[in-house]
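User: Teach me something about this protein's shape.
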Amino acid sequence: MHGGFVSGTGGCGTDLPDREERSVADAPLLHLASGVLPLVIDDRPVLFVEATQRLNALNGSAGMLVALLADGIGLADLRRELGGTLGLSAAEVDALLVDWSAQRVISASSEASLSPAGSSAVLRAGALDIAIVFPDDAWGRELAAPYAHLPQQHGADLRVIAAELGGDNDLAGIFDGRAGTLVAREGAAPVLRGMVVDLALEQDAYIALHAASLATPDGEMILLIGAPGAGKSTLATLAAVSPGPLRLAGDDIVLFDPRTGLAMGLPLPLTIKRGSWDRLVETVPGLADSPSILRADGQWLRYAPLPSPAVPAWRRLAGVVDLRREDGGGTRLVAQSPVDCLGRLLEEGFVRGGRCTAVQMRALARMVDGARTCTLHYAEAGQAVPVVEALLA
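Assistant: First, the predicted structure itself:
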């Protein structure tokens, strides 16, 4: 690990300032994340992080930070203590906090003193309405822009709040009411989206499928599946904005309800990777002006609102199209066995708890068996759109 973790020996023998002098009004309150355990082994302080299954030795500065976080400490007080004792600048403290937060060592809580909320958007995810709240300033408006296709309304089951926390490193926090993640403002968009997805996937009743989804006029749905880079988002977007009858229900995640056999696309913002920017810049409003974001996995991407979005609803599955993009080839649709299709869906499916039950599998198999399943070989997404639309016939 980075940010104060070391592989060699180190001590925590740093005298801490009197903790009674710290303010209790600082927000957010920072603390060790759930599942983080400080230990002393052979007189060496170490930290076990359950989320990453790693055991790390601590140097003196990291040991001091762990001691401060053990009982909880406000952000402003933490900046002062690390600055006064270790000579760290606010930017250095913030960079350390961002690193530790990304590694799930620390968490933040308490929304009480955060800046007032600005606009909000409500995302329907299965049985939940998730309200996403943005700051009322230029950064908040930039962060909110990809969610412009979502309704603004009062009342929701859960809230995700983005807030600016100041400092030389332009620190921000993303909070879901239980815990928060600290992040540099320029990297906040993927963290915000990830937290919304995590809340949606915590619903035990559903199976999450990695697929783009298109809604038909008669209340059915077509799934586009495929390996990363197969063009799911691009093809789904072009199909939605074409003169045809399809509408975009989601470009990344579909929830399947085994109890009813119906599916719902999550209307998250479009996630457009760099290779598709030129292809979609004239199709997706505002794409050219949206900021370029370097995600943690090294992918450059841009977020944008869903064009021609469908109303979130549970729909019967009409077809599953397994995309195989092949440069230089033509466009052809080949039947795929339901067994092979089911295997493809399961490769990237997600079930809360990590195991698909017999009841869930039976329902998923029944859904696939009742749909048209095929493989689409194509080179250009524009030429593939009429083939996908023809599935409705």
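Now, about its shape. The chain has three domains: 5-106, 117-186, 207-390. The chain has a mean pLDDT of 85. If you'd like, I can walk through any region in more detail.
User: That's plenty for now, thanks!
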